[in-house]
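Subject: Sanity check before I submit

Could someone independently write out the structure tokens for this chain? I want to compare against mine line by line before I put it in a report. The sequence has 219 residues.
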Amino acid sequence: MRKLFFAACVATIGCTSINAQEFSFGPKAGVNFATLTGDIEDNDMQVGFHVGGAAEFKFNEKMAVQAELLYSRQGTKYSDSESETFNGVTYRYEAEENIRLDYINIPFSFKYYIVNGFYASAGPQVGILASAKSEYEFTESVSGGGFDNTDSGSGDEDIKDDVLPIDLGGHIGLGYRMTNGLEFSARYNAGFVNVNDAEDSDDFEIKNSVIQVSVGFMF
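---
Independent answer below. Compare away.
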């Protein structure tokens, strides 16, 4: 009986030690360079952020899987400017619109450690839409020929009803983990589905596209 108890204690301690070596978790955060692709035109990349946590299970020195839960600000932006002169009168128009799509992203990664903490990763991702807004501002002016008028304005609009609530995609990336647990990584996220859910533009395709640069710490 005492031998059985001793063997169980040794097995428990051994499993705990193995789990401590193979399982790690911690926070991560970073910068998003996001845009929207598809039928959309003349849009630019928007700088956003992501923050959350990750948990990794390492099978051996080379192979691991990782799951994450991230709050991610994505979207795109537009800039438009026009200038026209007629009979000495100049009309100018400038506008900027930011489309902000905030997601709760759940990426799942297959990781391969190449050498000395460097690794490559790839896998699927599910995104749950948290909010969607369009923020805009504009300036109009008329000058010359006795005119000198300027008008400007700004506002925002909730567009969550026009965006699909679930996004499915995939990612590929590279990273480096130091021996003290500090980790740096970069990945590209590509959306696979059309997230446009507006009633009057069903055939207009929009997909998420995000470059992420992250820093984290794994315990």
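---
OP: Matches mine. For the report I'm noting this point. The radius of gyration is 25 Å.
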